[in-house]
Amino acid sequence: MDDRDRIPIQNRAGFEQDSTPRTGNTTGQNLFALGAVFLGALCIVLLISAYAGKSKSAVEHASKDAAPRKTPGAEGSRPTEAASDSSTYARSITWRRSLDRAIEEAGSDKKIIVVDVYTTWCGWCRKMDENIYSSPQVAALSRNVVFVKLDAEDGGEGEQFAHKAGVRGYPTTVILNGSGRVIDSRPGYIQSPSAFVSYVESVRGAG
């Protein structure tokens, strides 16, 4: 380049500075620009890929939500054990508190009477309630049995009945026929619902 082509410029210190273009510096700037363009393009590609992945996930989620769901009780489902029991057994015992009314009911329906003679302080009486009389298997006897609960220390009907039936300990299970006559009794706690059912059915069959 001829000296006439140089454009003198002055720096802050007052010295003359050469303004001749420098080829090497220009090449570096070009490379930097190309790199910036490449990085920008790469970022755009990554953003597009991420957006496409989210769209696919949203479509799959919507497809799952739209799929039909099986409802309880559909074909192939099995009834639960609890449902089966409820159709076989009564849910609970309906206790009578009056012996006279129980005799009337038993006579008209041709049932026997099972009397639970108890006291309020008796621990084994409470265990009979918790473990035996709460059983659906025992409650199912209600089809052929009228259940009566009498307090042997109530100062009234319960105490009189306990005295007549010869009850000496608690609990005592007393079984009457439809006319109110005692046909069997068993003092003490009966060990299981099945043992209780067997006892009542054997007395009913014999009577």
Characterization of this structure:
The protein has helices at residues 23-66, 81-88, 99-109, 123-132, 136-139, 157-164, 193-206; strands at 9-10, 16-17, 112-118, 145-151, 172-176, 182-187. It is an alpha+beta fold and 207 residues long. It has 2 domains: 27-56; 90-206, Glutaredoxin. The protein starts with 8 loop residues before the first strand and ends with a helix.
Labels describing this entry:
2 domains, 7 helices, 207 residues, 48% helix, Glutaredoxin, two-stranded antiparallel sheet, alpha+beta
**N-to-C SSE series?**
EEHHHEHHEHEEH
What does the largest sheet look like?
A: 4 strands, mixed
Assembly form of the protein: single chain
Rg, rounded, reads: 48 Å
- What is the residue-mean pLDDT, rounded to a whole number? 77
> How many beta-strand runs?
6
Write down the overall geometry: rod-shaped
What's the CATH architecture name of the largest domain?
3-Layer(aba) Sandwich
CATH superfamily of the largest domain: Glutaredoxin
Summarize the amount of helix as a percent range: 40-55%
Give the CA-CA distance, first to last residue: 138 Å
Query: Helix count, per DSSP?
Result: 7
DSSP strand content: 5-15%
User: Structural class, please?
Assistant: alpha+beta
Strand order of the largest sheet: 4-3-5-6
From the 3D structure, determine the CATH topology of the largest domain: Glutaredoxin
Give the class-level CATH name of the largest domain.
Answer: Alpha Beta
Q: What is the total number of structural domains?
A: 2
Low-confidence stretches: 1-24, 61-89
